[in-house]
Design a protein that fits this description.
This protein has 475 residues and is of the alpha/beta class. The chain is 30% helix and 28% strand. It contains 16 helices and 18 strands. Helix 9 runs parallel beside helix 10. The protein is globular.
Length: 475
Amino acid sequence: MIADNEIAISTKDLRWLSNDQAWHYRILPIEKIGEQLTVYCEYPPSESLAAELEIILGYTIKLTPLPPEQITRLLSTYYRKVQTGNNQPVVHFNASDDFLVNMIADAKKMKSSDIHIESYDEKCRVRIRIDGMMIERYLLKREDYPALINKIKILSNLDIAEKRLPQDGRINFKNNGDEFDIRVSVLPTLFGEKIVLRLLNNNATDIDLYKLGFSDNDLDNYLHSLKKTNGMLLISGPTGSGKTTSLYATLKLLNKQTCNILTIEDPVEYTLEGINQVQLKESIGLTFGAALRTFLRQDPDIIMVGEVRDPDTANMAVRAALTGHLVLSTIHTNSAWGIVSRLVDMGIPPFLLANTLNAAVAQRLLRLLCQHCKKEQDFSNDLYPRNYKPGAEISRHFLPGGCEHCHYTGYLGRKAVYEVIPVDYDLAAEIKNSNMQVHEILKEKGIKTISENAFDLFASGQTSIEEIYPLLLNY
């Protein structure tokens, strides 16, 4: 018997079988030499299997039997089945379909956030990001690549003749009753243009602030900061950490008929009825700062700014907070308290910041272990980063396993971990004095760091040490 870790099927060979063919006949391609295709099949193979495959595929077939349970594992790994509302598998791309439409629809059903279309010296490929991890999905012929790039450019109203400069566009995708927006980014590279398609979820009905991952104490601090009618609430974190989702969940909670809410975003990722949303257009001068100036003349109660990315936006956000508005936004820093030093670096006077900042929040997304197949094991403190001191002793922990539910990755879904710092009188005084070393004060107030919340998620068996390791390094 061949072990699973000794089997590696390349994307190049996967193209010989469509998703429905692989699952229907329970076969996987090994290699194609000339007109002979070698495939893995279930043991024992039926007498007619090779003959039937030769008629359908048009190649001479050579069979290599494997145990049925191993075939199931390999099929779940290499030919993912995605579920629709009626729990029926959706067939993946085959040569008779329109490739671009099918590729986007397939990625959306698999809950992918991004599609990467890339060109290299000897091959072109498509990768998709699922739960934060990249998966190679298709290989393309070099002669087909320019046509695919041009089709995407046409759909997103970009210049197909411009191949030397980056371009950004947007596609409103409609297919079989499904409708959502796609943000398009084109980047010239050494061997051709690379395109990244960001799939935006227009439907905000499933977003719930209470289900994002806040601990009870953090949620209480977060909600308390929202009760103020003025000031700023800022969320920090790297790209793809769920900051925008947290903001939309907050807006959904605050969205009332008696409240005037304005947003300026790049791009508008969700649409919320009752909220006035503005799309950023820097090419015509509609920047975050310019929009904020106009917002102040629109009698707003709450303002959401997609990102504080420059001193002009930071100054306008502080001005809006000082004049009696609640301002929500995101900012790129490594920690919640790092928001303070970042704004000071942008030129915001500490005394103004102390009077306007309601709460500083940091967040990250962690993959959750599949509850169907996670494996328990003894734990050793050697698995922690060097010099890390855990908050509690752990004797057992869980490792990723692999089953049909998680496509043999060991992980299923993601959860946000937060660090919420409500700025009270004591912390405001530290900001005025430009004191950035407040760790002991936060500890006295019982405010957990993002590292400590991640550790709690690990200690409860919901995630693995590998997932939280980078966060333990930062603290």
